Amino acid sequence: KDFCAFNYITKCGDKFFSIATYLMHRGLEPLIFDSKFSDYKQLIEDKKDDIITWSMAVDYKKHIVFFSTYSSKEDRKMCEIDKVAKSTVYAYYIDTEKIEKVYSTDMNIIGMAASDGKIYFTASKKYVPEDDDYRTYYYDIKNKKEIELKFDARISGNMEIIDDKMYFLGYVDKRRGIFSVDLKTKNTAPVMY
Q: Model-level pTM?
C-alpha cells in the first residue's frame, strides 16, 4: 500500500512507530516499522476504514507504545451536537508484541504522554473546545484509576515526559507556548513563547 501522510514517528528499541494514512483511505493507522523502514505491520486491523488514531505515546522504561483511537463514523455523528466520539487507548508491549485495550473514555484525547505505567492525556468532551474545556488526567494501568491533574496551565496538544517533568504545547494565563510542569510539585514554567 502507498502512504499519504505520517504522524508521530518515534523510536523505541530497534523499532519505529508511527500513525499513518494510506492513499485513498480516511483512517489513520498505528504502524510498527523495522529498523530500516523496509517492513511494517498494522497494529490494529481496520477493515472498515473507520479508525482514527489521533495520539500516541511511548513509555521508554517499560517498552510500551500507547495510542488512542476513535471511530470516524461516530465522530461525524457527534460533531453535529458538539460532542465527541469515545476514545479508546491501546497498549502495544514491545517485548512480547502483545496488544491490548487498556482504557476507554467519553472524551476526545488530543495529546498523550506515558511514564512508569501511567498514561497522561489531555481531553475534552466538546467537539470544538475552548481553552478552558481541556482537562489533563493520568490513568494508572495497574490500579485502573483515572485522576485529573490540577495545575495552572491548559494543555492543548502534544506532550512528553522527561525526568518527572511534562513538556507540552498549551496555555498559561491565556498565553500560548511550550511549557513544562513538574509532576511532583505541579509548578509550571515557560520553555518557549
A: 0.86
- Asked if the model's pLDDT at residue 92 lies above 90, the reply is yes
Could you tell me which of 107, 116, 21 has the C-alpha nearest to residue 66? 116
Residue in the structure block whose three cell numbers are 483515572: 146
Cβ atoms of 93 and 101 closer than 8 Å = no
Residues 45-66 have pLDDT tens digits of 888 887 888 889 999 889 999 9
Residue by residue, DSSP assigns the chain as --EEEEEEEEEETTEEEEEEEETT---BEEEEE-TTSS-EEESS--TTS-EEEEEEEEETTTTEEEEEEEEHHHHHHHHTTT--PPEEEEEEETTTTEEEEEEEESSEEEEEEEETTEEEEEEESSSS--GGG-EEEEEETTTTEEEEE--S-EEEEEEEEETTEEEEEEEETTEEEEEEEETTT--EEEEE-
Report the distance separating Cα 91 and Cα 97, nearest Å.
10
**Whether residue 125 has pLDDT greater than 70:** yes
